[in-house]
């Protein structure tokens, strides 16, 4: 089925062409801390529909005509919206907290690294969206799936907090379309054998909407059907008992089947097939690590995958009707004009792309680039935007709409919604951080590797999407330290990894903004190095961490030749080993202070190692910080080239706090620094093979160098500073 021509015409309107009419489509102004003030009586309602595993790149939106008509045509489609972890529980934890998975430390579906028990154990049950909205005067309601490992055995130890009304799907029946178990408020769980899960979610959502209207307050209603997730027979799942239980749900017999439709939809789309894109079961292997080793799918396998695809489309039809019913209800109550409706999913999905069995968990566009549609007051109708947004941005966006304060520890920021905001910021932020730990699992009767393999262990990786004017890139580092780089302007299917030996001839000719890959890679790697352990505003403004002077805010600006030497010297993203969870000491060097570098008042001991000689020659000077002496070790490696070559960096210095022992000069005077940027010390090392002078040694100390891997005779400089 193809998108109707009228819908295509409407959805194809880029925002610049829809701005002229958007003002007349607005009912009330957007609100929030950075927007127009609004009284509590007129604050908007918010409805949030969250599907499970819905794709963007296999055209699922073309098969839900009611959502096309009532959301896409009446709102804005965000084409560059991404989840940050391509599996449900970590993605949902990030979605509801506004924090990346490395900060929630909910990185898996089940304990010990994820699931509802770990969400509770890590303190998020007291610190997530519904609680903040209640504090702002909102009524809050939720129905459907919340987290994995939220079970009939542990639902009350403790109950999920923050909801005025809730009716949660519970394991082990969460994904059993015709055998769902729900648990309402503080009541006991109730099984619904023989009733269709999505229809139950719809009715519960309508009832909560009535409750919200009766309460007479602005409300937030989240509706989370399981479609189009694969069906899972509940009999294969074992209990998880509480927040301190480290026994995962058993998947020894883990088998999934094709998603199940409501009876009225069972025979739809008999001829639908997975789109035969260039990365569909390609003749040549693609991807990295275990993915590159997958054999070409057999005809029987492809036929099964097409049927799986049809099952997903059929399961989405009840979601289509659910959304239509919600909008009817809002209209009936006279609330539609003052309600924002968000429609998205937890992660994307692949079927046969890169020769993969049905599933998610990969960093490719099929798995991370997902639907986001927003309809509401001030949001352009029929709009399509290329603004880069992520799931961690949605909580800040919702709180902003509610007029509630934003938190300093949010890893995201409010996304542009209004005509004006969208016109001004289509590419103001260009990056999305992507991360994953643990298994890759097939949701097919067919296994990986051409045999019955159902799980792949080493699927841990860090990745980065960068989308700017004239560039569109994906960069990743796997736990095996294999790297990927795709120029998605010329290779949207991600078939040609420019960092793989097989693509060496292509890589030699490849350029981005006119620069060769040897200049590009250090920039991308440094950006990922910051993002892989960032916190708070550093996650949304990583270039500022690398360039605190504020002179770099994009990859284009970072590619300036004056920064070549700086980026060559930065630490690289690397793993010591593959782990199933976020184990920091397995993930190589970390950006200092977890992404927040403080240049004044820090201890030298935070930044240096004062007892290592090893393969490097070390000397020392003494400095005084507010009259308290500390020893600072200055090292340089005898194998200069292996240590990274020459360096040149800057560091902000507060003269009033530092002086050299037995000298009457300030530190900056002693170092004979250049002052072309305020109190900035310029430090450089001579060419390899030359000894460091006393002044150079002192300058090196000021750089806060850290010996990360002495056994490899290598040290890295983690200042977060670039030289002008």
**CATH architecture label of the largest domain:** 3-Layer(aba) Sandwich
CATH homologous superfamily of the largest domain? Alkaline Phosphatase, subunit A
List the total number of helices.
21
The CATH topology name of the largest domain reads: Alkaline Phosphatase, subunit A
Uncertain segments of ≥5 residues (pLDDT<50)?
1-29, 238-253, 593-724
Q: What structural category characterises the helix and strand content?
A: alpha+beta
Sheet with the most strands, sense and barrel status: 10 strands, mixed
The value of Rg in angstroms is: 27 Å
Strand order of the largest sheet: 6-5-4-3-7-1-10-11-2-12
Shape: globular
Give the number of domains.
3
Distance between the termini: 55 Å
What is the CATH domain class of the largest domain? Answer: Alpha Beta
Counting DSSP E segments of at least 2 residues, the number of strands comes to 27
Strand content: 15-25%
* Helix amount: 25-40%
Structure description:
This protein has 724 residues and is an alpha+beta fold. Helices cover 25% and strands 19% of the residues. The protein contains 21 helices and 27 strands. The strands form 8 sheets. The chain has a 10-stranded mixed β-sheet, sandwiched between helices. The longest helix has 34 residues, at 299-332. The protein is globular, with a radius of gyration of 27 Å.
List its traits.
724 residues; alpha+beta; Alkaline Phosphatase, subunit A; ten-stranded mixed sheet; 21 helices; globular; disordered C terminus
């Amino acid at each position: 089925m193809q998108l109707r021509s009228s819908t295509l015409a409407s959805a194809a309107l880029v925002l610049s062409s829809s701005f002229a009419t958007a003002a007349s489509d607005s009912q009330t102004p957007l609100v929030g801390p950075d927007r127009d003030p609004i009284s509590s009586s007129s604050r908007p309602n918010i409805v949030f529909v969250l599907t499970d595993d819905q794709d963007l790149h296999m055209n699922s939106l073309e098969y839900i005509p009611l959502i096309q008509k009532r959301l896409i045509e009446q709102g804005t489609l965000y084409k560059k919206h991404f989840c940050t972890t391509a599996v449900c529980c970590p993605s949902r934890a990030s979605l509801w907290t506004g924090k990346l998975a490395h900060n929630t430390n909910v990185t898996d579906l089940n304990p010990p690294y994820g699931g509802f028990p770990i969400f509770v154990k890590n303190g998020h049950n007291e610190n997530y969206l519904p609680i903040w909205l209640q504090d702002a005067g909102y009524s809050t309601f939720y129905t459907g799936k919340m987290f994995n490992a939220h079970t009939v055995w542990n639902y009350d130890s403790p109950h999920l907090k923050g909801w005025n009304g809730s009716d949660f799907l519970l394991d082990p029946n969460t994904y059993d379309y015709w055998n769902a178990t729900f648990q309402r408020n503080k009541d006991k769980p109730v099984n619904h054998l023989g009733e269709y899960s999505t229809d139950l979610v719809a009715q519960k959502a309508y009832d909560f909407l009535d409750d919200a209207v009766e309460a007479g307050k602005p409300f937030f209603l989240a509706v989370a059907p399981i479609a189009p997730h694969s069906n899972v027979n509940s009999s294969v799942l074992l209990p998880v008992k509480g927040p301190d239980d480290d026994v995962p749900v058993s998947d020894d017999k883990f088998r999934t089947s094709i998603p199940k439709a409501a009876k009225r939809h069972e025979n739809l789309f008999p001829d639908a097939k997975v789109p035969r894109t260039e990365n569909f079961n390609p003749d040549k292997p693609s991807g990295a690590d275990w993915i590159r080793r997958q054999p070409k799918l057999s005809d029987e396998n492809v036929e099964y995958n097409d049927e799986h695809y049809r099952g997903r489309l059929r399961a989405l039809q009840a979601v289509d009707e659910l959304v239509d019913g919600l909008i009817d209800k809002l209209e009936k109550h006279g609330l539609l004009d003052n309600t924002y409706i968000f429609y998205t999913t937890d992660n994307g999905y692949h079927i046969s792309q890169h020769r993969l069995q049905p599933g998610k968990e990969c960093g490719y566009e099929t798995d991370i680039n997902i639907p986001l549609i927003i309809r509401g007051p001030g949001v352009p109708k029929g709009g399509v935007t290329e603004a880069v947004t992520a799931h961690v941005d949605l909580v800040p966006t919702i709180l902003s709409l509610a007029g509630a304060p934003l938190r300093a520890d949010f890893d995201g920021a409010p996304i542009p919604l209004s005509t004006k905001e969208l016109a001004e910021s289509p590419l103001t932020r260009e990056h999305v951080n992507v991360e994953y730990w643990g298994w890759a699992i097939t949701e097919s009767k067919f296994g990986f590797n051409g045999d019955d393999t159902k799980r792949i262990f080493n699927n841990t990786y860090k990745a980065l999407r960068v989308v700017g004017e004239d560039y569109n890139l994906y960069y990743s580092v796997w736990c095996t330290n294999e790297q990927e780089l795709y120029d998605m302007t010329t290779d949207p299917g991600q078939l040609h990894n420019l960092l793989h030996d097989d693509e060496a001839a292509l890589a030699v000719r490849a350029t981005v903004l006119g620069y060769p890959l040897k200049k590009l890679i250090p920039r991308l790697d440094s950006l990922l190095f910051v993002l892989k352990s960032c916190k708070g505003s550093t996650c949304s403004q990583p270039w500022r961490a690398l360039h605190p002077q504020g002179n770099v805010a994009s990859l284009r600006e970072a590619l300036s030749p004056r920064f070549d030497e700086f980026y060559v010297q930065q630490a690289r993203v690397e793993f010591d080993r593959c782990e199933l969870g976020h184990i920091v000491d397995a993930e190589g060097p970390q950006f200092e202070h977890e992404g927040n570098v403080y240049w004044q008042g820090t201890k030298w001991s935070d930044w240096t190692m004062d007892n290592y000689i090893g393969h490097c020659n070390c000397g020392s000077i003494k400095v005084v910080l507010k009259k308290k002496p500390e020893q600072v070790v200055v090292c340089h490696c005898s194998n200069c080239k292996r240590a990274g070559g020459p360096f040149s960096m800057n560091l902000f210095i507060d003269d009033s706090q530092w002086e050299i022992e037995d000298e009457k000069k300030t530190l900056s005077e002693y170092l004979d620094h250049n002052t072309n940027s305020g109190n900035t010390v310029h430090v450089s090392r001579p060419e390899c093979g030359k000894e460091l002078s006393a002044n150079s040694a002192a300058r090196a100390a000021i750089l806060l160098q850290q010996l990360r891997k002495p056994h490899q005779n290598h040290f890295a400089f983690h200042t977060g500073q670039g030289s002008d």
